[in-house]
Write a structure and sequence with these properties.
The protein is α+β, with helices and mostly antiparallel strands. It contains two helices and seven strands. The termini are far apart. Keywords: Coiled coil, Membrane, Signal, Transmembrane, Transmembrane helix.
Length: 200
């Protein structure tokens, strides 16, 4: 007979035991009074600002619940002033902190992007200089090839002119030789003087 009563009592007490020391938050409406007992007729121990985190002991009586506030004071507040979710104040603080963290991350990313952008700009400048050097080298090579071809052409022309001059000189010498030979053929031969002529 005691066993069913024991089980029923355990089931009734278990939610209170499970709820003990669970975090609760004071509603955002206003600040509330912390009473010495479960009712407005009990002495006021102090006030708790809206949005403050408190610990719920699991005890309730009528419209009041027992809590331990952030200063360690144990007392009773109206149950409808407690909320299991975070208060708007805490949510706002967390959102502001998250926003600050995001801003810091964004600033870091921007700084990294600026550094990367500077590196890319530097690489582009180096690439442009390299392209200019390549263009200059190609132009110098083309100029060198053109100069070499021009020099070869002039050398060939000089060789041809030298050959022509040698042929001219050779032809002139041959012509002079023939002319001298013809003249020598037709020149009168000197007569030999007789040795007796001197004696006369």
């Amino acid at each position: 007979m005691f066993r069913p009563l024991f089980l029923a009592g355990a089931l009734l007490l278990s939610p209170a035991l499970l709820a003990e020391n669970l975090p609760r938050y004071i509603s955002d409406d206003i600040y509330i009074y912390l009473h010495n007992g479960p009712g407005n007729e009990f002495r006021i121990l102090g006030s708790i600002n809206a949005g403050t985190q408190v610990s719920f002991t699991g005890k309730t009586s009528g419209d009041f619940s027992e809590i331990v506030d952030h200063r360690g004071r144990e007392g009773w507040v109206r149950t409808d002033a407690l909320s299991s979710g975070k208060s708007l104040k805490q949510k706002l603080e967390e959102a502001e902190k998250a926003l600050e963290d995001n801003r810091a991350e964004l600033a870091a990313v921007r700084e990294e992007f600026k550094d990367a952008d500077g590196t890319i700009r530097g690489l582009r400048e180096q690439l442009a200089k390299a392209d200019e050097l390549v263009r200059t080298a190609v132009a110098d090579k083309d100029n060198a090839v053109t100069a070499r071809e021009q020099a070869e052409s002039e050398m060939q022309s000089l060789k041809n002119n030298e050959r022509f001059r040698l042929w001219q000189e050779g032809g002139l010498i041959a012509a002079l030789g023939i002319l001298v030979g013809v003249i020598l053929v037709y020149l009168p031969r000197p007569q030999r003087r007789r040795s007796g002529r001197w004696m006369n």
